[in-house]
Each structure stands twice: as structure tokens, then as C-alpha cells.
Amino acid sequence: MARSAATTADEYLAELPAERRALVGAARDLVRAHLPAGYREMMSFGMICWGIPLADYPDTYNGQPLCYAALASQKQYVSLYLMGVAPGGAEEGALRDAYAAAGKKLDLGKSCLRFKRWDDLVPEAVARVVAATPPAAFVAAYEASRRKK
Fold first, then answer.
1. Of 15, 26, 53, 67, which is the most buried if we count CB atoms within 10 A?
2. For the segment 46-93, what is each residue's pLDDT rounded down to a tens digit?
3. At the top level of CATH, which class does the domain 9-142 belong to?
4. How far separated are the first and last CA of the chain, in Å rounded?
5. How far apart are CA 63 and CA 66, in angstroms?
């Protein structure tokens, strides 16, 4: 299921087969446990998202809430989108180092961490990345990226 019409995260999870529901639910719990205060869980783009609602920050380029992290069950794997992980940035480097130290293969592309089993993750590293950016810093980075040069 790449995209869902669910309106809540619980509805989204209920649509999944039991094994996938357990994996996505565990990843959701990990994100929720380490998410900085100020982000809200919502459904957006057919997946579970954590971000800044339009009521708090309406000035987005696409009229959608500003998404910090998202979680989706794809056909062959689960995707955890970590928007604070810039290619070549400190967070990406920390993830790469943590995965190498754990002897695990990192399947990461442009902020999208892909995994098929819980054992594919390094939960402590994911938790650190999720916890790394408070909403004000994320908004500031977003605004800096949108400035015309």
C-alpha cells in the first residue's frame, strides 16, 4: 500500500496486514517517543506524517503542512522519510556512521530510510535523528531553503 485514504494513523495501521502493522506500529512508536515537542501527528500524502500544521505555519510552498517525518508501508518495504536529513549533512553522516558501527546496511536515499524488518534499523540512531531538530529550527531551515538567491 503506497498510499492510503485513511484519515488517522490508527485507521492507516488497521488497513495493513498484521505483520506489516506490527513493523509500522513499532516505527511509529519510535518516532513518537523521540519527536521534539511542537510537531503533530497527521495524515498527509496518504501516509502518517509528523509536522507543523497549517494553523501554526501556513506559509508553505504547496499549501500542505510542513512535514518533518513521515512513515509509509510500501509494496516491498517500509519508508521512513526524515526531512531533517539533508544529503551530505551531519544527520546523514551520523546515520551512516551508526549503521556502519552496527554492521548493518543503510538503505537511504534523499531523506528516505527504507527497511523490511525491525532488525534492519539502528533504532538509537533513528531516534537521535528524529530528536535532533526542534520545530523552530526546522522552520528556519525551510525558510532559508525557500529564499531566492
1. 67
2. 999 999 999 999 989 899 999 999 999 999 999 999 998 877 888 899
3. alpha beta
4. 39
5. 9
